[in-house]
Structures are given as C-alpha cells and as structure tokens.
From TrEMBL:
Protein name: Phosphatidylglycerophosphatase
Biological process terms in GO annotation: lipid metabolic process
Xref: InterPro entries: PgpA-like_sf, Put_PGPase, YutG/PgpA
Organism placement in taxonomy: Bacteria, Bacillati, Bacillota, Bacilli, Lactobacillales
Residue ranges constituting the YutG/PgpA domain according to the UniProt record: 23-129
Amino acid sequence: MESQKDHVPDLDAARARDAIEHVLHKTEAQDAIMTGLALDELANAGQLPEPLQTRVSEDQGTYGIDEQLVMSILGIYGTISWTNFGFLDRTKPGIIGQLNDSQKEGGRVNTFIDDLAAAIVAAAEARIAHD
C-alpha cells in the first residue's frame, strides 16, 4: 500500500490490515479468490481440458479471464480500485511480482493468484481512500 502513503500520510499497518480484512470478508471477493485458486491448482496438476490448460499454464497474453475475474472484487469499491489495480498489475510490486516471476521461471502456475493479490490490495487501497 505504498502508493497510498502520498494520499494518506498517517497510514499504518493496522489500518492497512483492517482494509484488507474488510475486502476478504466480502462474499464476492471470497468467490473470486476460491475460483481463481482452484483454477491455478487444477492447472498445476495438469487437470484442465485443452486448450484451457495451456492458456492458463502459460498465462498467455490474450488470456484475460484472470483480469475479468478480479473485476468482481474491484467493482465493490468503485473506479479508484480499478486504477489502483492497473497500476499494481503493471508495476507488480512485492508479492505480486514474486508470484508472477515464479511462474515465468517455471514454478507454480500463478495465473490467477497474482491478479487476485493485486485486486485485494487495490480494493483495500480504495476503501482507505473512501474513508
């Protein structure tokens, strides 16, 4: 939530954690997270039908369902969450980048979880901005 420090100078870990927990308690967020994690796990196990298996496993550039899935989280918190997500998806800071890079280096399939992590942070940032 470093990007919010300019807008909320007194932002501390407790407030950030509270905002993240608020996002995680939303049913829409839980459903998106469970769905994305299940698809990543199935892809890791090679259990998706083709051509879906290849598209998810390779996180192909034209496969945008991972971004579409997180829109259900972002929609709860308004347009600011969408712009926050775009920034996080492009810059991939912290764990978001680690998840993305791990897959590119031949590790686990993280096609959905990196975008889900970015969406959770983006939505939490939007919640803080609205307060």
